[in-house]
């Protein structure tokens, strides 16, 4: 019977892959470029962001894993970036590769508005030949499934002092391929983030991210506290009863490292802390000695 359930699961993936949701990163305070191509929250001249996400205890023999690599360059009010997201759920693998461009328009010395667009492809491969079927000559077992399609994101962001507000939409390839069930369904995002200085030692960053996807709505407020702009601890809680705690530090002038733990507390789904996620990120940045334009960043 176990093999039957595996085959049923594979068939469901074929039919409903267009319903796949974007993964929710616990480090969303530090990384919003994947959900909003217009984001200037981190606007270093050169920035490299690496993330690894590993989901444990979800009931799968092979834990879902996600890797992210993101590189962007900022010149004046222009930002150019490239990101690669690799999702792996057992023998089902999806890669999302996009280039993005954003332009910032200065409203005043203390406020700005930016627009951004990301264009790329999504590639999916399901290694059917590595699965075990009840019937050896099942036609589904003869060949691996592979498909590539174009994908588009766009967004806008407003900055007023230490306040950031963003709106965006991802996976708009479905609009150009309405009859394709496998093409990812559009996601709509909104976020707000603020930096509040308590004193010369502590700073608070309240943060809220919301997402609308088909018939579901996800919202996650959070709060991160920085100590001397070198170490931080954060907590967030979603309406899906996901609890996330994070810690990190600036290990060098240009290098940040962070870790986050996420667990679902909904007893109607699984026992609390049975399903959990471990996530780490590394951020490297470089800036010119003399910049002729001020650009707001998390840590100056």
From TrEMBL:
InterPro entries: PorP/SprF_Bacteroidetes. This is Type IX secretion system membrane protein PorP/SprF. The lineage of its organism: unclassified sequences, metagenomes, ecological metagenomes. It comes from hydrothermal vent metagenome.
């Amino acid at each position: 019977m176990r093999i039957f359930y595996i085959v049923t699961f594979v068939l469901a993936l074929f039919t409903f892959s267009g319903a796949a949701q974007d993964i929710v990163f616990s480090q969303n305070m530090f990384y919003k470029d994947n959900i909003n191509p217009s984001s200037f929250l981190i606007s270093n001249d050169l920035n490299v962001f690496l993330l690894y996400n590993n989901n444990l205890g979800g009931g799968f023999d092979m834990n879902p894993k996600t890797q992210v690599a993101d590189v962007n360059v900022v010149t004046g009010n222009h930002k150019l970036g490239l990101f690669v997201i690799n999702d792996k759920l057992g023998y089902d693998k999806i890669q999302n590769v996009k280039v993005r461009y954003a332009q910032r328009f200065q409203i005043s010395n203390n406020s700005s508005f930016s627009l951004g667009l990301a264009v790329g492809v999504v590639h999916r491969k399901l290694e059917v030949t590595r699965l075990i079927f009840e019937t050896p000559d099942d036609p589904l077992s003869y060949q691996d499934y592979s498909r590539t399609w174009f994908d588009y994101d766009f967004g806008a962001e407003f900055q007023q002092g230490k306040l950031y507000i963003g709106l965006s939409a991802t996976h708009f390839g479905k609009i150009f391929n309405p009859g394709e069930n496998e093409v990812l369904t559009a996601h709509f995002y909104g976020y707000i983030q603020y930096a509040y200085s308590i004193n010369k030692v502590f700073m608070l960053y309240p943060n809220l991210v919301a997402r609308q996807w088909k018939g579901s709505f996800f919202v996650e407020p959070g709060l991160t506290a920085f100590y001397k702009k070198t170490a931080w601890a954060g907590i967030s809680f979603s309406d899906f009863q996901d609890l996330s705690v994070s810690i990190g530090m600036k290990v060098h002038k240009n290098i940040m490292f962070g870790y986050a733990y996420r667990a679902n507390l909904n007893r109607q789904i699984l026992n609390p802390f049975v399903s959990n996620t471990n996530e780490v990120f590394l951020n490297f940045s470089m800036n010119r000695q003399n910049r002729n334009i001020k650009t707001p960043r998390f840590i100056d």
